[in-house]
Amino acid sequence: MKTVNLGKVHPELYKQLGVLNGQVSEAAKDCGLEASLIELVKIRISQINGCAFCLRLHTRDALRNGETNDRLAVLPAWWESQYFTEKEKAALYLAEQVTQLPKTSQTMDPNVLTAEQLSAVAWISILMNAWNRIAIQSGYEVSPG
After folding, report:
1. Which CATH number does the domain housing residue 84 bear?
2. Is there a contact between 49 and 1 (Cβ–Cβ < 8 Å)?
3. How far is CA 62 from CA 13, 42, 65, 119, 139, in A?
4. Which positions ≥6 away from 10 have C-beta within 8 Å?
5. Is 81 within a domain?
6. Is the pLDDT of residue 105 over 70?
7. Residues 17-58: pLDDT tens digits?
8. Quick check: is 115 in a domain?
9. Which member of 17, 45, 55, 115 has the lowest number of beta carbons within 10 Å of its beta carbon?
């Protein structure tokens, strides 16, 4: 597949996605979603989409915000661990549903999150999926260092 840097070809569209990103981040914080949870959602979506660029970026951000290596190590199987709170589990479940991960056997109680938090997690998921697709389609390089 041929790649083209979407941000360079259409910089105004890329800039507008950045503006939306800021608005989604503010909405998520305003409704009480912790920075660590927001990063977990972004990492999980990037795992599902196979976006190395976003995985590296958000894993570094998560670690800077106090996330642990153990929790990051089990994130791909979060439902099988006891590392995550009910709120985190509900957000991760919703993020996976928005990202279209095939149905699995786990279920979450959507009442753990408020309506505002449900909406914020859905918007984070939608936006993170867009960023993943931009990075993958644009061929962003991810090298050690």
Report:
1. 1.20.1290.10
2. no
3. 27, 10, 5, 22, 23
4. none
5. yes
6. no
7. 999 999 999 999 999 999 999 999 999 999 999 999 999 999
8. yes
9. 115
Concatenating the DSSP letter of every residue in the chain gives -----HHHHSHHHHHHHHHHHHHHHHHHHHTT--HHHHHHHHHHHHHHHT-HHHHHHHHHHHHHTT--HHHHHHGGGGGGSSSS-HHHHHHHHHHHHHHTPPP-S----GGGS-HHHHHHHHHHHHHHHHHHHHHHHHT------
| Domain count within the chain | 1
Q: What is the pLDDT of residues 58-69, one digit of tens each?
A: 999 999 999 999
